[in-house]
Amino acid sequence: MRRNLAKGRIQPKVSTMPRQQSEAAAFLDIYKLVIEKKRLQQELDSMEQRRQQILTRLEVLNRQVATLEDSAHQMRDQTDTPTALTAPTIAPRRTRPAAKPRSTPEGETFETFFLDY
User: CB–CB of 77/87 below 8 Å?
Assistant: First the structure.
């Protein structure tokens, strides 16, 4: 069964067998800590790069929204009735006429027809 760990807290790797206290064990612990520090620093750097990408994209989106809002205001000012919104007109649905059979040079005929669902 797995323990529920608090999110955001990174647990160190734990060895099941305790090591004897020696210089080699101390250097091994130092090595583990240095490796973990490098990994966390790389993760932090990649998160900062991603953050910069997101901020740049947000700036671009803000500029595009502002541009589109300006163009929408200009279009609204150019219409005859500035306060009335016009509903889009919907064209009536047209049905396709049945295709006329065409004769091929060999004398075979094919008929094409369309089915509407």
Answer: no
For tokens 């080699």, the residue is: 24
Cβ neighbours for 82, distance < 8 A, ≥ 6 positions apart: 76
Token representation of residue 88:
């889009």
Residue carrying the six token digits 């541009």: 67
Task: Report CA-CA distances (Å) from 113 to 3, 103, 105.
Answer: 66, 15, 21
**Helical ranges in 1-117 per DSSP H:** 23-78
Please state, in angstroms and as integers, the Cα–Cα distance from residue 74 to each residue in 32, 61, 63, 67, 79, following that order.
63, 20, 17, 11, 9
Q: Are 114 and 98 in contact (CB under 8 A)?
A: yes
For 77-103, the pLDDT digits (tens) are: 887 454 555 566 666 666 666 655 555
The pTM for the full model equals 0.46
